[in-house]
Amino acid sequence: MDLIDKKILKELQQNSKLTTKALATELGLSATAIYERIRRLERSGVILKYVALLDPEKVALDFRVFCQVKLNQHVQSQIGAFEREVGRLEEVVSCYHLGGEYDYLLEICVRDMAAYREFMVSKLTASNHIGSTHSSFVIKSVKQTHELPL
């Protein structure tokens, strides 16, 4: 990956709807060259997919919670089962396996506190793999990005 590829990626991270023509103009290359570079980045797995980022407030999912989870046991079968279960929970928008006091950090988006309680009672803690949880509620999002610093 060279400097031009990084510039392409930086531009696409900011606006994935940019056309190859617009990128070509911005970077001083032909549209064909930009197209080929983007296709190579897609084929090699550098570009995973293109998404639309939504405003959580406008879709009534702006109650954001970070939930730390400790598993009962740290055996491969339990870890795999928990990860599969979490993968099926649509309210969980991100999940990280951690080192430290807790095993996982989940980012959860729901409508409100009542919806979070229902999620915890009927879905998350219904898992027999969980030993304990600790929830922190977002008061204000200060910085949130999906852009990697290239």
What does this structure look like?
This protein has 150 residues and is of the alpha+beta class. It has two domains: 3-43, Winged helix-like DNA-binding domain superfamily/Winged helix DNA-binding domain (Arc Repressor Mutant, subunit A), CATH 1.10.10.10; 63-137, Lrp/AsnC effector binding domain/regulation of amino acid metabolism (RAM) domain (Alpha-Beta Plaits, 2-Layer Sandwich), CATH 3.30.70.920. The N and C termini lie close together (11 Å). It is 38% helix and 20% strand. The chain has a four-stranded antiparallel sheet. The chain is built from five helices and four strands. It is elongated.
CATH topology of the largest domain: Alpha-Beta Plaits
Spatial extent as radius of gyration? 20 Å
In total, the number of domains comes to: 2
Please name the fourth-level CATH homologous superfamily of the largest domain: Lrp/AsnC effector binding domain/regulation of amino acid metabolism (RAM) domain
Tell me the quaternary state: single chain
* Fraction of residues in H or I helices: 25-40%
Order of helices and strands: HHHEHEEHE
Low-confidence stretches: none
Rough shape? Answer: elongated
Average pLDDT figure: 96
User: How much of the residues is beta strand, in percent?
Assistant: 15-25%
Tell me the total number of β-strands: 4
| CATH hierarchy class name of the largest domain | Alpha Beta
The N- to C-terminal Cα distance equals 11 Å
